[in-house]
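pasting for the record
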Amino acid sequence: MRIKVGEHCVIFPDVTIGDGTRVGNFVFIRSHTQIGQGCIIGSYVDIEGDVVIGHHVSLQSSCYITRGVIIEDEVFCGPRVTTLNDKRMSYRRPSLTFVRAAPRILRAARVGGGAVLMPGVTIGENALEKMRWWAPVQWSQQTCQTRQSWSAIQPASWIGCRGRKLSSGPRRPEGASFGTARFAH
């Protein structure tokens, strides 16, 4: 098998890409990155380096994968998923020390489009991270906890928005639809 690379890509020479991987247009992949076999890297994806991506991973268009992220096999990341690795935003601030705390996405997890994975977060095996338009998934108070395996996360039940708390309504039985989150007054 071969690797298919789109147009206008910048891929550093020491990047390792597995057989059968397809790379879209305008992709930027920095040094010391390993990408497994059979992956799909969509157009406009930016991979900052020191990243390990497993086999059969799909990164949809415009994902930003920051330095140090580990993505295990069979993970799906929807369009515009963003990962962050600096809790203190220490850039050009000598009084703050940079401590890399890149997210980790375990095997077969699915991260919805537009989600922002904050520093130090681990998405559990087979977890489903959903994104709603009003707030990124990881702005919840549980940002330092590991998402449980085989879990579905409804972030709107954990976050606030401009001083108002969001409520997802009464607890639903297992397997039921989440419904629509609404503002609680």
